Amino acid sequence: MKQDEVHISSYLSLGTVLTVLLLLTAVSVLITGWHLGPFTVAAALLIACVKAATVIIHFMHMKFESLFLKIMVSGVFLLFALVIVITFIDYLLR
Amino acid sequence: MEGQTNHTEYTDSETGKLGMWIFLFTELFLFGGLFLVYAVFRAKYSADFHTGAAELDAFIGTLNTVFLLVSSMTIAMSLTAIQKNNKNLALILITVTIFLAALFMMNKYFEWSHKFHYKLYPGSEVLKNLPQGELLFFGLYYMMTGLHAIHVLIGMILLAVNLFKIKNGRVSSSHFLFLENSALYWHLVDLIWIFIFPLLYLIT
């Protein structure tokens, strides 16, 4: 019954996602080559976050999952980011 | 009665995926701890981390990123193929994924052997005599890439199991939860690498 409701990603859309991910990788390699000081770290991590989100949304099919799973996954990733950022700020301000 | 059976099947597949995601969260926090240790020591010994990162080959890192990204696409495509009941294409795509994973591991082998050649391995005299920050950098480098490589190996085994399951019909267009969860695991391996790559190889 529910099998009909399963979303099947098309080969073309998956190929497009890969192209975007490869382009982002190229951008991050180029940016870190420019030696922008502390901005390099920020830029590289920002691109990594965009790439991670792209993988989760498209390759991991989060776009087509139930609202429950969407809320849970985004909540845990938010918690994960907060744990890392808050602990790091705590270290820096000691 | 029939409605009940359908309901049970639906719940099973949903909870199966939910369980996999909960497992992936634990994996995320396992690596998260290492990322945090890396961030703190990088802030403390930034000059040493700069020297350490300069020793790594960004080209090999980039190549491995490409292998993992392409393999992430092929495994996602294999799920599409099995959902469309195209068994042969699914088998080919999973085999390609395993092949790309093997290329990744081969690169890792060359990379590590190169370091071992210069006696840069945990516990070596050369490493012990390096400044504290560089010692920490290489410790974290081996820990993070090593733990990630173990995950790649486990992923390869999981994917190989999928090949058998598809061949004997236990994974099919109506029952593909095992392949779906294996693919989720493989994407996580890719996700972790997406962060390891800039942190260790790019930012010097």
**Protein structure class of chain A:** mainly alpha
In CATH terms, the superfamily of chain B is Cytochrome c oxidase, subunit III, four-helix bundle
How far apart, in Å, are the first and last alpha carbons of chain A? 58 Å
The CATH architecture classification of chain B is Up-down Bundle
Shape of chain B: elongated
Q: What low-confidence regions of chain B span 5 or more consecutive residues with pLDDT below 50?
A: none
Q: Radius of gyration of chain A, rounded?
A: 17 Å
Percent of residues in helices of chain B comes to: over 70%
Question: What is the number of helices of chain A?
Answer: 3
Largest sheet of chain A: none
* Rg from Cα of chain B: 20 Å
How many β strands of chain B by DSSP?
0
The tally of strands of chain A reads 0
Query: Can you give the mean pLDDT of chain B?
Result: 92
Q: Which sequence of SSEs, written as H and E, runs from N to C of chain B?
A: HHHHHHH
Q: Based on helices, strands and strand pairing, what is the structural class of chain B?
A: mainly alpha
Mean of all residue-level pLDDT scores of chain A: 90
User: What would you call the quaternary organization?
Assistant: heterodimer
Write the element-wise H/E pattern of chain A from the N-terminal end onward. Answer: HHH
